[in-house]
Write a structure and sequence with these properties.
With 201 residues, the protein is α+β, with helices and mostly antiparallel strands. The longest helix has 38 residues. Helix 1 runs antiparallel to helix 2 and helix 2 packs antiparallel against helix 3. A 4-stranded antiparallel beta sheet has the order 1-2-3-4.
């Protein structure tokens, strides 16, 4: 790579890095939402959602990539043409690509859904999906936050023996949780318990 081409490549890398820095949040949200809704969602699910960790991970990856790009660009600007430099740029580019692929895969493979069989949770750092059957549920609790006399649903807690699974009661979950609660109460015989927690001002 000649000095002129290296300077041009470095300039392009910095331009792409700046664009990605500003676009990382909307691009990350779009990718997770689009892939999960189009590839993972099925009609048999009572509820499907992407945890916040899924969005945070992909946005973090999209923010790390431009940092690598800027480092590579600075290296191109400050070093003379040599075989060693070309090898270093290739290795740095390969590392960037691996980080991107790994981060995006972990992000897209992080979701949970509820169906008639139970709760299925594919956590961020686990390779296999965890399954919690309704047959094993021992308690179900909704925690509400009392802030100045106003009750706000905060999370739903499913208990399986000594293990608990907490799901944030997002507006989406609040709108779609009724079939789940009805099934657990009427079929499994586990009643929903309300717990109010007062926040300190």
């Amino acid at each position: 790579m000649s000095a002129h081409n290296a300077d041009r490549a470095g300039s392009l890398l910095i331009t792409a890095a700046v664009i990605l820095l500003f676009a990382s949040v909307p691009i990350g949200i779009f990718i997770v939402s689009f892939v999960h809704q189009s590839m993972y969602l099925e009609r048999s699910y009572w509820f499907f959602d992407s945890p916040m960790s899924s969005y945070v991970t992909i946005v973090a990856v999209l923010l790390i990539i431009p940092i690598f790009q800027i480092i590579i660009a600075i290296y191109l600007f400050r070093t003379d043409e040599s075989r060693k430099r070309n090898v270093n740029v290739f290795i740095a580019s390969l590392v960037t690509l691996l980080v991107m692929i790994s981060g995006i895969y972990m992000s897209l493979d992080n979701y949970y859904y509820i169906d008639k069989n139970g709760l299925h949770y594919d956590e961020l750092w686990k390779l296999e999906k965890s399954f919690y059957s309704w047959d094993d549920i021992t308690a179900m609790k909704q925690i509400n936050k009392n802030d100045g006399g106003t009750l706000t649903p905060e999370k739903l807690v499913f208990t399986y023996g000594i293990e608990t699974i907490e799901l944030p009661l997002t507006p989406k979950l609040r709108n779609e949780i009724d079939p789940v609660i009805d099934f657990v109460e009427n079929v499994e015989g586990v009643k929903l318990v309300m717990e109010n927690i007062t926040t300190e001002n």
